[in-house]
Design a protein that fits this description.
- The complex is a heterodimer of chains A (about 300) and B (about 550).
- With about 300 residues, chain A is an alpha/beta fold.
- Chain A has two domains: about 5-220, Rossmann fold; about 225-280, 2-Layer Sandwich (Alpha-Beta Plaits), CATH 3.30.70.
- Chain A has eleven helices and 14 strands.
- Chain A has helices spanning about 45-50, 70-75, 95-105, 110-120, 135-145, 165-180, 190-195, 215-220, 235-240, 260-270, 285-295; strands spanning about 5-15, 15-25, 30-35, 60-65, 65, 80, 150-155, 180-185, 200-205, 205-215, 225-230, 245-250, 255-260, 275-280.
- Chain A has a six-stranded mixed β-sheet with strand order 6-7-8-3-9-10, sandwiched between helices.
- Chain A starts with a strand and ends with a helix.
- In chain A, about 45% of the residues are buried.
- The two termini of chain B are about 30 Å apart.
- Chain B has two domains: about 1-255, no CATH class; about 265-285 and about 290-550, no CATH class.
- The chains are: A alpha/beta (about 300), B mainly alpha (about 550).
- The interface of A and B includes residues 74, 81, 85 and 96 of A.
Chain lengths: ~300, ~550
């Protein structure tokens, strides 16, 4: 099966600034791929390069097996795109906006558009300038989905949307993947990606740090541990332990993230102090993510 | 922060002022060099009435006086005034349009303080512009070794400064009261153009002099400061009005709710919101049409096109009727004029209906109207969508970049044709009603040539828009090229040794053949069309090979 998106050695520099450095990535057909990184990591640059809005300094990219530059127009028959900084024509209504892009793309089923609008609770009759930013974002999401494209590329799609609508949006994303189509979304909010993505690519300072299955990432042995003692214990006692991070002491408790040897941790906790309680939970992606940054970064 | 609002605003605008002043200085040099080649002896023997009627009052000041009059009185004053209006309309209303006003006022500064900083910036900008013109006015004659004894450049520049400050402050006031930069710029710019027209035209007819005094431009130029020095009374009128407008601005900006919408609202939208004018607004602006790129582009600019087209058509109608009001003696006076002088005052014999219409409607006003439409369409077409961010979505559609460029160019052609057609119809109606001896076929010819000329400058805007993605660059390049082209065609033919160079100017192919008098010049039309097509053809690769801004 053809990959939905590939990049090979994709690099983009703006003057001296290297926004993307030798990015090699393959997004499979039928998956939801989350592209994670902090602001300014290069997520938007990667998306805009793949869409031929800007041109790579080196390397190349394909979408549905077609070259991102040479076949740019053909590619756009098969994609939906939601820009990160969504802008639309202020004087058009939501309906006019969708009609305009539907006319340019062709193959839009208006029954489906109405269904999407209903699911997102979007009012299409108002002018774009009169929408709140969240409602404007809904129009942007509808236009990215409306022609049932093979690949939907969305840059920070949840911006400004309230939690209920976010849930519906995530369901829509899952459905697209179930139909064998692909969703590529960038985000800096990991909880969102955690809920919808099959795989996650982590980017920092223009470099792809890793690509992991969300499941694998989560099962990485980072745990969030709380130790409760009968008297206050200084955090320093644990901070030099191998695998310990973010060690903080509150009253009688010590909190830390830990991916080291549990024996060593318990040895310190029990030999020198009186341990009253211990709780351990799976870390969320946020912490795993931060862990990656520290290692790859400084 | 008062200081930083001030410095920020000045920094934002100073480059435009510098470029304009340097350009005007160069134009002054060109004009003086050309005039120096001409034998002006005939000029001193003319009856004063003729010179008055022709708007030339610098008698006795020779080459220098005429050159200053031509460059500073009209072009210089309109340019510096226009830049002041741009700065003034951007001051409060522009920040509201950009949505930055909220951020600005979140700082511990009152609205009045912010507004005063903006006004101080306006004063500095106009002063810098005037000083530069003054310096240029001193350097150019020295460099060219031309005697300018008796010309009071300083007094002329002082009047020009007060005049531009007034227009800038009018824009500030309109923006402060409405919060709409387009209303501020359009209102002040329109009134400035009207004032200039009224001041130059009204004194020619009986009783018109008194009416002309109602227009602010009168207090800039009517006292001929380059000959008579500063007229304290006139200067006081301009500055007094400016202070009154400043006070009105402070009141206006403090009494209303500031606008928070990021998007601009047009006058048309305002008319639409009012139930009494909604039907009219819809008729003018039309419903949004989105079936394709050219259709949507045309629909975007329909309001502007119809308003501009109707204005210039109205001007054509009015001027044709006004011609019958001109005193009989004028045609006899004009018959005595040497050709060189006629060329100097606009290249036309104002005593014939064709010459009069060409001078009043076609040689300047119609090109300005067309460039207003084609330049706007060309600049906004690509760079406007790019700056607004909508180009991202447009390019995510299966459309070639070349189709986008060509689609926008097609819309530009259609809109320019509408302006050309409306002008033809309005003027034709005036000619028929007034029973003037002007060929309607020739009228069609000059309308068509003007339309093609407008398309050439629109294509300049489109090319810069495609290559840079910046609206301001596109607009200023198109306007700058148009100004230079106009100057080349107006001044170079006056001196034989330079005359051939006028062929470099697109204006040469518009009026060079005297289309209103002698009919269609198909060769000239072909040249203009070829330039337009070449520029559009260049815009395609310029846009295709470039990364989108963002």
């Amino acid at each position: 099966m053809t990959a939905a998106i590939t990049t090979s050695g994709l690099s983009k520099s703006f003057g001296d600034v290297e926004a993307l450095v030798d990015l090699d990535l393959e997004v499979h057909a039928g998956e939801v791929f989350g592209f994670l990184g902090p602001n300014g990591a290069g997520k938007t640059t990667m998306i805009r390069t793949v869409l031929d809005l800007i041109r790579p300094t080196r390397g190349s990219a394909t979408v549905v097996g077609l070259d991102s530059h040479r076949d740019a127009v053909e590619i756009r028959r098969h994609i939906g795109y939601l820009p990160g900084d969504l802008a639309m024509y202020p004087r058009l209504t939501g309906k006019d906006t969708l009609t305009y892009f539907a006319n340019l793309r062709g193959g839009v089923d208006w029954g489906y558009v109405d269904q999407l609008a209903q699911r997102l609770d979007a009012d299409l009759s108002k002018k774009v300038s009169d929408y709140s930013s969240g409602n404007r974002q809904k129009i942007g999401i509808i236009q990215a989905f409306m022609n049932r494209p093979q690949v939907i590329i969305m840059d920070e799609p949840s911006t400004g949307i309230d939690p209920l609508v976010q849930q519906e949006f995530q369901a829509m994303v899952r459905e697209v993947a179930q139909e064998g189509r692909t969703v590529f979304l960038s985000s800096h909010t990991l909880s969102e990606v955690q809920r919808v993505a099959d795989r996650v690519g982590i980017i920092r300072a223009g470099r792809l740090i890793d690509v992991e299955r969300v499941h694998d990432l989560r099962s990485k042995a980072i745990r969030r541990i709380e130790l409760v003692f009968d008297t206050p214990v200084p955090a320093e006692e644990f901070s030099h332990l191998r695998g310990a991070r973010d060690v903080e002491a509150f009253d009688n408790a010590v909190h830390l993230s830990f991916d080291g040897n549990m024996d060593e941790l318990l040895a310190i906790a029990t030999t020198r102090h009186h341990l009253v309680d211990i709780s351990s939970e799976e870390a969320d992606l946020e912490e795993i993510f931060l862990a990656y940054y520290r290692e790859a970064g400084v | 922060m008062g200081l930083s609002v001030f410095t920020f605003t000045v920094r934002d605008r100073i480059v435009g002022m510098l470029v304009a002043a340097v350009a005007l200085g160069l134009m002054l040099a060109l004009a003086m060099a050309v005039y120096a080649e001409i034998d002006l002896s005939f000029y001193y023997e003319l009856p004063e009435a003729i010179l008055d009627a022709a708007g030339i009052s610098q008698l006795g000041t020779g080459v220098g006086g005429i050159a200053y009059g031509a460059m500073y009185n009209l072009m210089g004053a309109l340019t510096i005034g226009g830049l002041a209006i741009a700065a003034g309309s951007a001051s409060i209303a522009g920040e509201e349009r950009d949505g930055t006003i909220g951020l600005l006022l979140a700082n511990p500064r009152s609205r009045t303080q912010v507004l005063l900083s903006k006004m101080a910036a306006l004063v500095v900008l106009t002063t810098v512009g005037a000083l530069l013109l003054w310096v240029a006015g001193l350097i150019v004659p020295t460099a060219l070794d031309i005697d300018v004894t008796g010309v009071q450049v300083g007094a002329l520049v002082v009047h020009l400064w007060a005049n531009s400050l007034f227009w800038g402050m009018l824009a500030v006031a309109l923006g402060a009261w409405t919060g709409r930069p387009s209303v501020a710029a359009g209102g002040a710019g329109g009134f400035m153009a009207l004032s200039w027209l009224a001041t130059s035209f009204l004194p020619m007819i009986d009783g018109g002099r008194a009416v002309a005094q109602l227009f602010p431009w009168w207090y800039f130029s009517s006292s001929a400061p380059e000959v008579n020095g500063v007229d304290a009374g006139h200067l006081a009128v301009l500055l007094g009005l400016t202070v009154a407008l400043a006070v009105a601005s402070v009141v206006g900006v403090n009494r209303r709710d500031l606008r928070s919408t990021v998007t601009s609202v047009t006058l048309l939208d305002r008319l639409r919101d009012n139930p009494r004018t909604a039907a009219l607004a819809d008729r003018i602006g039309g419903q949004a049409r989105v079936s394709s790129i050219p259709v949507k582009t045309a629909s975007d600019h329909q309001g502007l096109t119809l308003v501009v087209g109707a204005s210039i058509a109205g001007l054509g109608l009015l001027e044709a009727l006004l011609f019958t009001l001109l005193p009989d003696g004028m045609s006899e006076l004009f018959e005595q004029l040497p050709d060189a002088l006629i060329a100097m005052i606009g290249g036309v014999d104002m005593s014939t209906p064709a010459g009069f219409l060409q001078g009043e409607v076609f040689s300047i006003m119609m090109p300005i109207a067309l460039i207003a439409v084609t330049g706007t369409v060309g600049a906004k077409a690509l760079a406007g969508e790019e700056e607004a961010g909508t180009m991202e979505l447009l390019l995510a559609s299966p459309v070639r970049r070349s189709s986008i460029v060509l689609g926008k160019a097609a819309a530009m052609v259609a809109l320019a044709a509408v302006v050309g057609l409306l002008t033809f119809l309005g003027t034709a109606a005036g000619i028929v009603l007034a029973g003037l001896d002007v060929s309607l076929v020739n009228l069609a010819a000059i309308s068509l040539l003007a339309t093609l000329l407008g398309l050439v400058f629109g294509a300049v805007a489109l090319l810069v828009s495609a290559a840079t993605g910046r609206v301001r660059w596109a607009v200023s390049t198109a306007v700058g090229v148009a100004l230079v082209a106009y100057m080349l065609q107006s001044f170079l033919p006056l001196a034989e040794s330079y005359a051939d160079w006028a062929a470099l100017s697109p204006f040469h192919y518009f009026l060079g053949s005297d289309p209103l008098g002698s009919g269609m010049a198909w060769g000239d039309a072909a040249v203009l069309l070829a330039i337009f097509l070449a520029l559009v053809a260049l815009a395609v690769p310029a846009f295709e090979r470039r990364g989108l801004r963002g």
